[in-house]
Every structure is written in structure tokens, then in C-alpha cells.
Amino acid sequence: MTTLVNNGTETDSAAGIFSVNSELARYFIASGIAFLVDVGTLHLFTQIAGLHYLVSAATGFVLGLCTIYVLSIRWVFSKRSVKNSHHELLIFSMIGIGGLGINELGIYLLTDKLLFHYLASKIVVTVFVFAWNFGIRKLLLFR
Predict the structure, then answer these.
(1) What CA dihedral angle connects 90, 92, 97 and 100, to 10 degrees?
(2) Does the pLDDT of residue 7 top 80, yes or no?
(3) What's the domain range around 126?
């Protein structure tokens, strides 16, 4: 098997690839759970509570962010780059704020400008937010 030398130590390249793939699979599942919390809140707050869809979207996003944080540190990622959990939560949340910006802007543009239903807009935007969140979190927090 091919080995990579990293800082004077040998590692199995297949094991490294498997680790990333299994983390991606777990992140995908965890994101699905967070998505259900997020979109469920969006729907309930908009349809039942009568809130504006952007307020509902932000509230759902924050609840989904909490869900994905807990799942990420307890189940998804095996290595944590930031040892201080308060700093880790701050960085995780800052990345989430970037995702929230993508979320709100995308839903607004698709719903108000292109006349998509707000739930259809949410589904489209989720693909971009997922890519942003996984990539940046993996790079900065869970190497």
C-alpha cells in the first residue's frame, strides 16, 4: 500500500482517504438531521406562527446550527484542531454566520426575485451552505 510521509511519520494514504470519506458521510447524515430541524422550524414559524419567512429562516438556521455543532463534536469528526471548546464554538458559530448569510441572501433572491416558493428556495440554498460549512469547518476545526 502507498504511504505518505507527513512530518517524519508514515501514514497509510488509504486510511486518510477513508477517514475523510467516513467523516463526510457522517457529516451528510448529521446535516440531514440539522436540515430537518432547520426546515421544520422554517415551515412551522412561517405557516403556523405567521412570521416572515426570513425571520423563520434565520431562527431555523440557528437551531440547525446548534444541532450540527453537537453532532459534529460528538459523532462526525474524530479530530479537533482547537483544544479550547469555547474558542471552537466561537469559530464554529462564525462559520455558521457565513452560512447564515448565504442562506438568507439565497432564500431572499430565489423567493422575492425569482418567485420560488420559500421552501424550494431553502432546498436549493442548502446545497451551497452544506459545501461552505463542511469545507471551512474541516479546514479550520477538525483536521
Answers:
(1) -150
(2) no
(3) 3-140
Longest dimension (CA), the chain: 60
Indicate the helix (H) or strand (E) that contains 62. Answer: helix 53-71
Q: Which three cell numbers stand for residue 112?
A: 422575492
Split at pLDDT 50, 70, 90, the class of 11 is very low
pLDDT value, residue 21 = 79
Average pLDDT over residues 50-71: 96
* Mean pLDDT value of segment 129-141: 93
Q: Which residues pair with 9 in a beta bridge?
A: 6
In whole angstroms, what is the distance from residue 107 CA to residue 27 CA? 23
- The residues that bridge with 5 in the sheet, in sequence order, are 10
Buried b (16+ CB within 10 A) or exposed e, 94-132: ebbeebbebbeebbbebbeeeebebeebbeebbeebbeb
Domain count, the chain: 1
Separation CA 126–CA 52 (nearest Å): 19
